[in-house]
Design brief:
This protein is α/β, with parallel strands linked by helices. About 50% of the residues lie in helices and about 15% in strands. It starts with a helix and ends with a helix. This is ABC transporter substrate-binding protein. It comes from Vreelandella alkaliphila.
Length: about 375
Amino acid sequence: MKKMTKFALTSLAAGVAFAALTSTAQAQEQWTMTTTWPENLDLIKIDQHWAELVNQLAGDEVQINFRAGGTLMPGTEVFDATETGAIQASGDWPGYWAGLNPAFSPLATTTSLFNGVDYLNWIQQWGGFELYQEIYGQYNMVYLPYGITNNESGFMGRTPIESLADLEGKRLRLSGRDQGRVLEELGGSQVTLAGGEVYQAIERGVIDAGEFSTPGVDFKAGFAEVADYWATPGWHQSASVFGVMINKDSWDALSEETQAKLRTAAEATMAWSLSWSERESTDATRKFIDAGVTINQFSEEDLARIQEITNDVIVRGACEHPDHAKVYHSMITYLEDYAAWRDITAPFNMSRTIDNLPSLEEIEACL
């Protein structure tokens, strides 16, 4: 009997030791994560917020070693590095990959369509999250949207832009495939530059005006030092989404509980990012004004014209690729569905009331 008891206790001790070893091994798992943003661009704070929160919530299972953009590889290479598993995760703005699949463009931002709350609603309740998984899943990745910023600043430079007529012949730094097409219809030409190059391009007159992000980000990037004029609102990017690309094999190696913690951290970061960005934009707007920057606003007539061109660009682009059509179809379906409640609560609602949307029927014909 004593021998049996001793055996049982020995087995129990071995089981406890094995469990401890398993737990220790899990705690020792390390992820390397980088981002498209260098240290001097404030958008990196969204990536850092998520990584820090994950380490707090799931530190026993996975630790994220976060590296600023450009310290491991150029920002343009993070997509391939994550897809192949060279690194486990990287923060991004989906629009940078529109050359691979145009559906990445609306997953990142829209021209004259969604605002920040629309993206939040769509991602969490109207099927948007699943579309991110579908598109990024084609490249061996899981995607967690974890950042939303509202309307971007607009165009800043040394040449005044007071109306759409002033865009004729202008060279403007602009991100996004669809955004560039709308600008071309308005008579301007799109110049593609990395965010860190916009300051010098304005300063040296390489571009007539440029945009990068929200007023908070743009002010910290030094735009008030080189820009005399600011054309607003930033119709070209009515809101933007940021997130983390995660190698699918690395994701699958995590327990379901750990995966849930990473998703929880993403949702918390998303809410934080929107309010953080709006506070930063508010403070920075005052700083731009104090610095003597002249603000010009496009008229309602100009914005209505932009909406017309945008609708046409969306429909034409949707017919070029079924994934592009699928994402926009989902977005416009959301806007039409949400309108039943949104419009009767105007102006005390959380979303923009739009009377003129892209044709859902024409997009459906392209699916």
